Amino acid sequence: MSKLAQRSISLLFAGSIVVLLLASKSSITTMRLSPLDPSSYSNAHELIIRHVDLDWTVNFDKSTISGTATLHFKLLKSELQEIFLDVSDITISSVAVKTSAGEAPVDWDVGGTVDNIGTKLTIYLPTKTSGELTLVIAYETSPKASALQWLTPEQTFGKKHPYLFSQCQAIHARSILPCQDTPAVKFTYNATLRHPTEVTGLMSAIKVDSEPGVSKFQQKTPIPSYLLAIVVGALVSKPIGPISSVWAEQEQIDEAAEEFSQTADFIAKAEEICGPYVWERYDLLVMPPSFPFGGMENPCLTFVTPTLLAGDKSLATVVAHEIAHSWTGNLVTNKNFEHFWLNEGFTVFVEGKIVGRLAGNASRDFHALHGLSELSDCIKTQLADTPELTKLVVDLSECGPDDAFSTVPYIKGSTFLRYLEDLLGGPEKFEPFFRAYLNRFKYQSVLTNDFKQMLYDWFREDPKNEVLLERINWDTWLFGEGMPPVIPNYDRSMLEACLAHAALWAENDLETIKASPLLKQTLVSVQMIEFLAQLLEKKTIVDLSAEKLALLADTYGLSSTKNAELRFRLVRLYIRARLMDKMDEILAFLNSNFRMKFVRPIYKELAGWPTAKPIAVDNYNRVKDQMMTVCAYTVAKDLGLSDAE
Ligand SMILES: CC/C=C\C/C=C\C[C@@H](O)/C=C/C=C/C=C\[C@@H](O)CCCC(=O)O
Ligand SMILES: [Zn+2]
């Protein structure tokens, strides 16, 4: 973890920088900021936020949000004298304790900034307190708040109105409000949002009231801070199900409604698997192309990338994934991001079950096998220099969650659950346990041990399971590096055609390929994606030339495809073939969206091609201001640019 280990620390007192230290690796190698969460300063073992009232004004002219956050705490300890909160690039103007008698200002200071983590806000309580406590904090965010992206009208489809959106996971909520920015703590929230009258404001909550320029929201189900979300822009909506509408700019609304027409079916299957849906609404919002992820499970309003708009619903499984989060992640939440697999591995597992129920078990297994291809690619490329990040449970005491993010918790985690399901008697035995686990831990935050303990308690009811439970090598699954230690016995029927096509193109010259009867076989979109993924996995491809890739693109209609997963892989083949003639096409895809899943591997591959690297760096410098902070930061690292180290 050496490259990640360095966290620079600066001390600030009431806004002014006093000392700047660069912590040496050795002085902080075992630093854990708080007992519950290595990525948070909060003393959440001593008090917890139960409810937040936000009064926010969105200032497009300054690219800031200003207003107040009223934090309602429950104290877990008597005689508490200090409260530690997380902040990042926030300017605080006042902190007051609120009682029935009014508001009384209290002392506070900020200090101890750790790179990629943020700053500690200490609030000094005047009298020894116990029970409950309410703090009112008046503040303004920075134009560079890492959770926010501000778009000019020119950067939107409609070109008329500005646009603001947030992405708080994992630890960026601290850049939009002072809080205990740890998933160990859950709170309900109410918000009053003031914004220009011509645009619409939405949040990860139910809209309870609106008048021109003011929208009010209520989230009655407790959420961790990373699920706080806001969007303000020229948005319209279209109903797509009994509890669902899709939101987008006018130009994309019809396309989006069609692409995501299976939403209600996904919800129905998810309820069969997980239990009743508690969030009242499930709306979707199609984001601008700079949204850095495929989807974000913001409660009541999932955010999705426009790169899902393939035209044939082939990428809509991301919506099934986000729906599954309504239980796994949003109801039962990882206590800190070292146990992120409890959110993501569980969600991919449910996503697979939704696919299985709607399209059959062959599709479920194909989906899982495709996940393993993505995992293998990620381990060999993105994580080649940081094998410790291929563990299911990672150590975040030395690096920020954004640095540790990968597909490992998703795919290794879901593979582990499938292994457990197969071992312990299949879906018939495992699903009742799974539902009971969700029911037991709903509204709570959990660690891996909570899951393990419940699994043992449940399956030990039948003594015959003892011998099966003994077979589980928890240590290797949780702390072993690399690919999963056991690959379940998946149905490979849909994969075979992908392997055959990949072998054909990798092992043969043009004439042999042209004559192959395999070319008459039709592959569905998801098989096409997997076929290209398999081709990219090949160590050598015979005659990887412009002609061969032109024939490939032509044969499978790749040049004109709208499918971003296909374009992503085609572009990577162009780079592998060192096709400088294709640089415009490569850059066009690279600049068409800033979803990290796509742009990071492409930049990384360009960085490994000496002639192309300066072009990639130059392109990055030109467009980085259009990226979200997390994307700009991680791509800079992938390109080996020093300011990201
Ligand atoms: C083991 C990793 C530890 C911590 C990482 C946790 C969060 C990291 C952060 O960068 C935020 C991630 C947010 C993800 C949101 C949605 C994903 O499901 C998208 C997956 C990739 C994609 O499809 O684009
Ligand atoms: Zn997810």
What are the defining features of this structure?
globular; epoxide hydrolase activity; disordered N terminus; 645 residues; protease; zinc ion binding; Neutral Protease, domain 2; membrane; 22 helices; 8-stranded mixed sheet; binds zinc ion; 24 strands; Zincin-like; Immunoglobulin-like; Peptidase_M1_dom; 5-stranded antiparallel sheet; 4 domains; alpha+beta; binds the ligand CC/C=C\C/C=C\C[C@@H](O)/C=C/C=C/C=C\[C@@H](O)CCCC(=O)O
Neighbour order of strands in the largest sheet: 7-6-10-4-3-13-16-15
Describe the main β-sheet briefly.
8 strands, mixed
* Topology, number of strands: 24
CATH superfamily of the largest domain: tricorn interacting facor f3 domain
What global shape is seen? globular
Which structural category fits the helices and strands? alpha+beta
Could you estimate the helical fraction of the residues in percent? 25-40%
Which cofactor or ligand species appear?
Answer: the ligand CC/C=C\C/C=C\C[C@@H](O)/C=C/C=C/C=C\[C@@H](O)CCCC(=O)O, zinc ion
GO cellular component, one term: cytosol
Catalytic activity: leukotriene A4 + H2O = leukotriene B4
Pathway: Lipid metabolism; leukotriene B4 biosynthesis
GO biological process, one term: peptide catabolic process
